[in-house]
Design goal:
Helices cover 42% and strands 13% of the residues. It is α/β, with parallel strands linked by helices. The protein folds into 2 domains: 135 residues, Rossmann fold (3-Layer(aba) Sandwich); 157 residues, Rossmann fold, CATH 3.40.50. Strand 1, helix 2 and strand 2 form a beta-alpha-beta unit. The site of norvaline has 9 residues, from helix 6.
């Protein structure tokens, strides 16, 4: 059966089947190679996408705009809280208006419920460019990066050390779908939500993956082929920053922790990084760090997704 993603939303990486996940990564890889060989086809010329940012961004904003440019798709970028979903205009009215102009709606926001509400109203694809709970395009980019560096994802041992946040949720669900051995270490009280862990365990049972919410960073990282972390205070948690510095103090990914991982382990971080906090300079600047490959692959997976859901 041929996989088609035309018209599909992506609100969480867990929305995909294992076959769809592999298909998106394959298309992204093919398009990446074709671009490097000089393919400058613009299959979505004349079409448009709304990019709505209610939180700051560097990578997501630039990589989505460039992905659009490479497809001939026109991005309409709105930043801050004073354009879409403002002035008391309801999500329903906003969605109905946007649908008259654009072919897809991409949103970076706080609550996942705004995305699910817009997706329920919209007949065009809705894309999650990061919410408090999920970051699916970062997850796709990171899985593509792991595949490039380690080959097959099936059985790959992956450790995430840090906050049980949107990235931890995304790694749990994406890793489970890909059949990986996913280990998560957070301070007590900062674990990923129980319903996400349960969803990941259900996906893992089908895909032959393993899920471990571990007792500490050393247990998670031991022998792992991939070690990842993320900021200790996500966007929207700025007031907790000082308190979190204390809570997460023993969770820095440094040379001592990386020494517990496999000899050919890679280090990953979605960025922006807070050097000296969740990761030391020596690790993020080392030859095992693939953080800029991850950033580049945002562009390739988003271009692939836009071309697949818009039927390029
Ligand atoms: N990784 C990521 O989403 O970066 P931005 O917040 O800069 O978009
Ligand atoms: N967890 C971070 C990811 C940033 C890309 C945040 O939500 O701020």
């Amino acid at each position: 059966m041929k996989t088609t993603l035309v018209g599909r939303d992506l609100l969480s990486i867990g929305d995909l089947t294992p076959e769809e996940l592999t298909y998106v990564l394959d298309v992204a890889q093919t398009q990446k190679e074709a671009w490097a060989l000089g393919d400058r086809d613009v299959p979505l010329a004349g079409r448009s996408v709304a990019l709505i940012f209610q939180k700051p961004s560097l990578r997501t904003l630039v990589s989505f705009e460039v992905a659009c440019a490479r497809l001939g798709l026109h991005p309409v970028t709105m930043q801050g809280r004073d354009t879409a979903f403002s002035r008391g205009e309801s999500p329903f009215d906003t969605t109905m208006v946007l649908e008259r102009y654009v072919d897809a709606i991409a949103i970076r926001t706080f609550e996942q419920s705004l995305l699910t509400e817009v997706a329920a109203y919209a007949e065009i694809p809705v894309l999650n460019m990061l919410s408090d709970d999920h970051h699916p395009f970062q997850g796709l980019a990171d899985l593509l990066t792991m595949r490039e560096h380690h080959g097959s994802l099936s059985g790959l041992s992956f450790a995430y050390v840090g906050d049980g946040n949107n990235m931890a949720n995304t790694y749990l669900l994406g890793g489970a779908l890909a059949g990986m051995d996913v280990r998560i270490a957070t301070p007590s009280g900062y674990e990923p939500p129980a319903e996400i862990v349960q969803h990941a365990e259900e996906l893992a049972a089908e895909a032959g993956a393993k899920i471990c919410i571990c007792g500490g960073p050393e247990e998670a990282v031991k022998g792992a082929k991939v070690v990842a972390t993320d900021t200790w205070a996500s966007m929207g948690q700025e007031e907790e920053y000082e308190m979190r510095l204390e809570v997460f103090g023993a969770f820095t990914v440094d040379d001592d922790l990386m020494a517990q991982a496999a000899g050919d382990a890679i280090f990953m971080h979605c960025l922006p990084a807070h050097r000296g906090e969740e990761v030391s300079d020596e690790v993020i600047d080392s030859t095992c760090s693939v953080v800029f490959d991850e950033a580049e692959n945002r562009l390739h997976v988003q271009k692939a997704w836009l071309s697949l859901v818009l039927g390029a």
